[in-house]
Amino acid sequence: MRRTSVLGTLLIANLLMATRLSLTFSRSIPPLLLTRTSCSISNLKQFPKSHPCPLWSSSFSFCLHRLHKSTSPLRASSFSSSPLMAASSPNGVIEDNPLLQNFDFPPFDVVEPKHVRPGIRSLLGELERELEDLERNVEPSWPKLVEPLEKIVDRLSVVWGMVNHLKAVKDSSELRSAIEDVQAEKELEKLSQKFGENVLDATKKFEKLITDKKEIEGLPATALGLAAQSAVTKGHENATAENGPWVITLDAPSFIAVMQHARNRSLREEIYRAYVSRASTGDLDNTEIINQILKLRLEKAKLLNYNNYAEILKTLRNSPKVRMH
Fold first, then answer.
1. Domain boundaries, the chain
2. Closest to 192 measured CA to CA, from 282, 297, 307
């Protein structure tokens, strides 16, 4: 079973670590390597290596491990493509992808926009398989758990860092389009957060002032006290549970009390309609955000080899290790 939940967490947390990687690239790699040049990958070996691990690696433990156990010239073997990936490649598209090959230095001069989509998607597939293997054979120790997990995270960070750095120094519409296609989860996270913020702001914005106690007949004393306290916070300093005035809000304690206990049918309808239509108009309108979320959820599903987002949810619910709320 595909471990979508864990891989998704890794992707969201590490997909855009290129900010710090870009600083490393710009300081440690000669300028001629940052754009397309006439030099071949084999010629990159002429540059001396003064560090025991790749300067573009984001894994601290990985570097320490190499520092203590190896003084020989290094190849970024943990960033290479596997036979499984190459075998699954039609017409050698993946096999020839520079994002998935062995390299001493990031091969900026041969990476093109056409490599991004198949490269990142194949890499995610392989990392998912490695993650599944790690889960099946996990041992609670640093070398058996932390180091393998860091290598998985590091490999994604390194390859994505190459792509994002090229965007910074060699931007093009084709590269932007490819990056947008494979970073759907990042945008989805932002939109989901904005959606929630709009709902919260709309909830806080609504208030209904009541001065006639007959309008709120049926509410228990605790609900009346809460409504009076809300009125005090809104500037009605003399509000009391017994005499009012009272302020009804869309916060759960106030909303539920009205729905369950208020005898005033028109009040229940008004509060209910206000609750279900939160963030649907004005500056807090979530309509376009909803459309974008649906679009990106479909892209996320395709990225993870599902037909639609519902299949992802089904997988998560059927997984014995994932608890859905």
1. 4-182, 207-277
2. 297
